């Protein structure tokens, strides 16, 4: 009957982070261009492979005057991979511990990022050159109240411009920008890139650096497809400028989930110059880059806040001046003074500025040494609680009983 929502609601209200007054509404009315960077992990940023930069354009953004680069930001996805990252982004809730929430709960009631923007006069859409039913996107996007899904049918895809999973990222971004040019403004477009996807195949003409040399073909090729992704983002920025869409937009880009699984630990250790990859290392390797690029902001910084994908929704809504104090969300505004250095993974691991908790062991964040579990205990409880609340909301379809306009619960408070 929705009565579980009372406790969840109390927790969410009590743990809300106040917006940063300087940042709230500072970019009201701008277009939002969100880019999901397929399988991009943070370890390649500002790093080299055989003496060559892997992500020269993204590296330049880490020092750019208009870019906030978050170097302590983590994916929180589970088996739903890209779809989980989308779910977290839209709802500031976790995906599920089993299966993919996109499939299992596609018809729930949600109060998505897109819906909030829609209510504030935005034209909302997702752009992704795959068939619309993949990950059940066409269904759940209706539940998210996304106005339009530019799927593979909106793109010109042929043998010459595709590889691996489909349309290559460079033509994908180029064609997307042309479609964006005709959209009513302000718009919110979320673009999902695809070329940097396992098994990381590229046509020879798109290989801009050599392969790595290790026992893992997957890791060896990964550097090349990451390099291609970096190039595609660079050209995307140029395209946006050419079409006059750059200045009046916020461009947010983040890695959706890991690209290199633990099956490649030996090769990864070789690349990172370590003896082995421990549970501690694996947790830290779940870091994905986050860039919030705001043309003209002139306040670019490297942000060290420990954070995750669940924080994106409140952060962006606040930049646009949209109040979230009544929203049922578990993340917090990254620019808020009250944002905590704490990120929970879907499988119960977590990271703070002091500790890493993985494999039921508490590690010192700095040294990687095992420390007494009491150092992790309070966070273990909180992580369990937050994951549990998120599961309750989804499994019980509890947002049916919640009015996000007023913050009223339509359940009997006994
Ligand atoms: C498919 C793309 C990749 O459309 O989003 O999905 P993934 O395998 O990364 O979840
Ligand atoms: Mn993905």
From TrEMBL:
Chief place where the protein resides: membrane
Compartments, as annotated in UniProt: Cell membrane
Membrane topology term: Multi-pass membrane protein
UniProt keyword list: Cell membrane, Membrane, Transmembrane, Transmembrane helix
Domain Sulfatase N-terminal: 30-322
Coiled-coil region list: none
Organism domain of life: Bacteria
Family affiliation: Belongs to the LTA synthase family.
Name recorded for this polypeptide: LTA synthase family protein
